[in-house]
Design goal:
This protein is α+β, with helices and mostly antiparallel strands. It has four domains: 158 residues; 31 residues; 119 residues, CBS-domain, CATH 3.10.580; 87 residues, Uridine Diphospho-n-acetylenolpyruvylglucosamine Reductase, domain 3 (2-Layer Sandwich), CATH 3.30.465. Helices cover 55% and strands 16% of the residues. The strands form four sheets. Strands 10-11-14-13-12 form a five-stranded antiparallel sheet, covered by helices on one side. A four-stranded mixed sheet has the order 1-9-8-7. Strands 2-3-4 form a three-stranded mixed sheet. The chain starts with a helix and ends with a helix.
């Protein structure tokens, strides 16, 4: 086969056009699979027509990908055919082999790898640039797309999609980590999202104020005693019990106790509100709705024996989402106060998960607080000066309150020279 000079030029131009379209389809496929739909929705709502069209195409991803693959295969076959004819004209029988090698390298570099790399870095910009032309190809390839749609429905009869394909909580947390590392959100926003994702897993026992830390008054208390308790505790609400703390009968609010004329004249029984009682395994997501619907601020948590285990307040629940909330009456305390290099004073009411995260250790314990863990490790009622070593930490009890550890010193132990050599 002898081609004229004009035919050779036409073949070369045809091959270049095919490679360009191959690059276009490859880049478009990568752009649409990598784009940020939330960002596109924001631009579309702001009136960007290209963003609206791109979003519309991405919502019908099956039809979009079919169009791209049909177009890409057509141009790749075309460039291979033109290349074979061109190289056979110059090199005869070995022209087909040479054409295969050359066309494969050219398409791989300029039609696949390079355009996909560029599109991966600018997915939204490129997808909006390509959207009008892709929409045109969608209309052109409509009959073929219809056939592929029918074929997909036929295949779906044999390959059922499992309901468990939804994103798990662990995957959502990993996604937040990736977005945070990418710089799209800062650390505070990332923590807020993580708290929201983990929120539904938390139970009342995970965030409650234990009974030993409660401020409560007997129903027989005098008005003067109640006033002193409000002043000393600086709380706006107090629990009211009948015989003991296990028999809570109500919640007294500061605004009901004090009126414009001073302390109310009404009997205590008339101004207390009925408390909400919940079990310690109640999910806090459900508890939040319960407190909102009942217009209450406090829920009394009971244990398996029906006794008072502690309380959960609306503030406790909100702190799980937004972090610690301080008001002007709170004494700001640090859970971990640095005393020196790798040495910290630990407030032992802190959660064990927070303790492990702070010191980057993994400790297996059934206790929810550091106080419980220390008592568990010592296997006796702790006293000042008690200590032990665990997971590379040296723990020393520095202050107790009754039978509880109030503060302990935690120090990271460094390996000795002999241990370092042994490692």
């Amino acid at each position: 086969m002898n081609l004229s000079k004009g035919q050779i030029i036409a073949y070369i131009i045809g091959m270049l056009v095919c490679v360009l379209f191959s690059a276009f389809f490859s880049a478009t496929e990568t752009a649409f699979s990598s784009l940020n739909r939330t960002r596109l929705k924001t631009m579309a709502e702001a009136g960007n027509r290209r963003a609206r069209l791109t979003l519309s195409l991405s919502e019908r991803y099956d039809r979009l990908i079919s169009t791209i693959l049909i177009g890409n295969n057509i141009v790749n076959i075309a460039v291979a055919s033109l290349g074979t004819m061109l190289f056979v004209n110059f090199y005869g029988d070995v022209g087909a082999t040479i054409s295969t090698v050359v066309v494969t390298i050219v398409v791989l570099i300029f039609g696949e790898i390079s355009p996909k790399s560029v599109a991966k870095d600018f997915p939204e910009k490129f997808s909006m640039f390509a959207a009008p032309l892709i929409q045109l190809f969608v209309w052109v390839f409509l009959p073929l797309n219809f056939l592929f749609t029918m074929w997909k429905k036929f295949l779906s009869l044999f390959f059922k999609k499992k309901g468990e394909d939804k994103m798990s909580q662990a995957e959502l947390l990993m996604l937040v980590e990736e977005v945070q590392e990418d710089g799209s959100i800062d650390k505070n926003e990332g923590n807020l999202l993580k708290n929201a994702i983990e929120f539904s897993d938390l139970r009342a026992e995970d965030i409650l104020t234990h009974r030993v830390d409660l401020e409560a008054i007997p129903v027989t208390a005098t008005k003067e005693e109640i006033a002193r308790r409000f002043a000393a505790s600086k709380f706006s609400r107090l629990l009211v019990y009948r015989d003991n703390i296990d028999d809570v009968v109500g919640v007294l609010h500061l605004k009901d106790f004090y009126t414009d004329k001073g302390i109310t004249d009404k009997p205590l029984e008339e101004i207390v509100t009925t408390p909400i009682f919940i079990h310690k395994w109640e999910k806090i997501s459900h508890l939040l709705k319960l407190l909102q619907s009942s217009k209450s601020h406090i829920a009394v948590v009971i244990d398996e024996y029906g006794g008072t285990f502690g309380i959960v307040t609306m503030e406790d629940i909100l702190e799980e989402l937004v972090g610690e909330i301080w008001d002007e009456h709170d004494d700001v305390t640090e859970s971990f106060k640095e005393l020196g290099e790798d040495k910290y004073l630990v407030e032992c009411g802190v959660n064990m998960d927070d303790f492990c995260e702070f010191f980057d250790v993994k400790i297996e314990s059934d206790c929810s607080t550091v106080n419980g863990w220390i008592t568990e490790q010592l296997n006796k009622i702790p006293v000042k000066g008690d200590g032990f070593e665990c997971m590379g930490l040296k723990i020393s009890v520095s202050e107790t309150d009754g039978h509880r550890v109030k503060y302990a010193v935690a120090e990271r132990m460094h390996p000795t020279t002999e241990e370092e050599k042994a490692d």
